[in-house]
Amino acid sequence: MFSASDVANSLACHHLLSLDRAKGAGQIEKPYFYDPGIELLRELGARHEQAYLRHLTADQSFDVAIIPTDVSWAEGAAQTVDALRRGASAIYQATFQNGPWHGRSDFLIRVPKPSQLGAWSYEPLETKLARSTKAGALVQLCFYADLLSQIQGVQPEWVHTVLGNGTEAEKYRLEQYIAYFRRVKRDFETAHSQQPYSYPEPVEHCDVCSWFPVCDKRRHDDDHLSLVPGTTRNQRKILVTNGVSTVASLAALNFGPKPNLDGIGKTALVRIHNQARVQVEGRKRGSPVYELLEPKEPNTGLAALPAPSSGDVFFDLARGRPIRLPNRLGILDGRNYST
């Protein structure tokens, strides 16, 4: 069964589908992933959701139908349809199931737009802790709106979010997003029906993904170019096209007096080459190494800081402790970076 999160996550990381398929085939196991920060966000999100439910029932005196989540999907979907036909002011935890697609919308809000249900219809609303509505939330809302349309016979005109800064809903015209969503959904279905090949390129979603240890290990096992900080995905593609696919091979490049590689600027190429070089040197020594970089231009970057003082303290994020440095020049270091 597929959910709104599956579609949204496929946009955040194309490799997730490959991992989920491998898990379903019993080829790999999903690692246990506990992050107290993420757990706190989930708890705060649940509180925000409950606060909006109280707002509807206590402040707005809505007749809210609450769909239980401890029943089967089929039973929850049936109760949702009953609440839709009854014309409840709002439906909490509205449950949908249509073929392989399933999901639970935080809320459905009744609006005076006629439908197959009667003189009313519904629009989906999601509560989000964020201060602004993200693309993933709109994909999620489109997902629920699409399933809802099949039940009530008309497409919702608006979808809504209630953000973490209050109870006032923000609304978005569905027709501006639904075509894009349907294309994304079709692409997801096509990818799932095929045997996708993808590589775990580091993306923002890595920070909250349970699969991170698996992908991170593979990148280290492969000596992947993403382990060189400062490289972009486009730069890595160009390097691979030119036969440079590992940190070691990037470090071993011999450019001659005039470094050149079509698609990567000279300055950037020299910088990432030198970074890879000191990382590989650190591996050989068995301990991190670093090189101090003289400023290219006066009074720019770290050179724009005030004159050094004996009381200056620098915090090393990698080691998690304060350190003292002899000066404030830039640094290349030889640690093996993770994303």
Q: What proportion of the residues is helical, as a percent range?
A: 25-40%
In terms of structural class, how would the helical and strand content be classed? alpha+beta
Which percent range describes the beta-strand content? Answer: 15-25%
CATH topology of the largest domain: Restriction Endonuclease
Distance between the termini: 31 Å
The number of distinct helices, counting runs of at least 4 residues, comes to 10
The total beta strand count reads 10
Major sheet size, sense and barrel closure: 6 strands, mixed
Strand order, sheet with most strands:
1-2-3-4-5-6
The CATH level-2 architecture of the largest domain is identified as 3-Layer(aba) Sandwich
What is the C-level CATH assignment of the largest domain? Answer: Alpha Beta
Low-confidence stretches: 325-330
- Summed over residues and divided by their number, the pLDDT gives a mean of 87
